[in-house]
Amino acid sequence: MENSLEMIELELAILIRRITSASGNKKIGHLDRSAYLILHQIATNGAAGVKSLAGEFQLDISTVSRQAAALEHKGYLYKIPDPTDGRAYTFQITELGLKELRDDKRARMDRVAEVTKNWPEEDREVFGRLLRKFNHGAISS
Amino acid sequence: MENSLEMIELELAILIRRITSASGNKKIGHLDRSAYLILHQIATNGAAGVKSLAGEFQLDISTVSRQAAALEHKGYLYKIPDPTDGRAYTFQITELGLKELRDDKRARMDRVAEVTKNWPEEDREVFGRLLRKFNHGAISS
DNA sequence: ACTATATGTTTGTATTATACAACTAATTTA
DNA sequence: TAAATTAGTTGTATAATACAAACATATAGT
């Protein structure tokens, strides 16, 4: 148990360091990670406002507000006023946004495929499952 | 295969987003992730110069130079001039640095333990192993 | 040996993602 | 209706990073 914890924590630190080194961090296609996740979230779960998105990603509302505004500016999202609350908006994804999301996801998947190209398929499945499980419990700090 | 790739890439993006959200990103004990990895690397593999550390972490040399200087300033590292090359130094870890590293590692392991507290031990072992395997192939981009 | 080139490191500058705080407008509550 | 709360935006500060310039030393070519 101590050993597996030690390996997980070290490898997580290395993973984060590598993936977020600015060289690899930035856009994969046209989307940086935040943009990608926002588009993915909206494409998957429907229109959402900055507050709910910020909660989802554990980011400050102001951060998401700027990111969403940037995506709107690029034509990937558009704002829908909330008819029941004059302060509130939701963002919905555009056709262009969907296209960018698809292209970006494909590029990201290709990178994962490259890194895991010699893995048995079972390892890929287990890795995905455990990452998901970890994320679901990972709101610790 | 498509499915597992899709899950891995999405969960990786989520993991990075969560772990690097500034709330959880920062220092765990006294060390941020870069500092932790530098101390860990030196403690494990011996004294090293900024060039080799930068290569190890895929960071720019200038970035590591500043990080190492900060760790030296705090008394966690000290500089050893390379006797065969008047330009070069290596950094070695101090007793204080070792203590910080131990404390920090303990705190990081505790966080992992918390997140995985309901996992069967086998899942922890497999997760650690797959993370390591992924990292070893992960210098793609 | 001398000059030109290359190398290891540090320092200057710009960018970017983020948080926190101040602000605006609209809604809810007392 | 006045006060408090809420959704969102904008201003400001911080930190990690890369890239470029500078510096000191080493190496190579002649």
UniProtKB/TrEMBL annotation, chains A, B:
It comes from the Bacteria. It comes from Neobacillus kokaensis. The keyword Transcription regulation applies. Residues 1-136 form the HTH marR-type domain. Keywords: DNA-binding, Transcription, Transcription regulation. It holds the Pfam family MarR. PROSITE patterns: HTH_MARR_1, HTH_MARR_2. This is HTH-type transcriptional regulator YxaD.
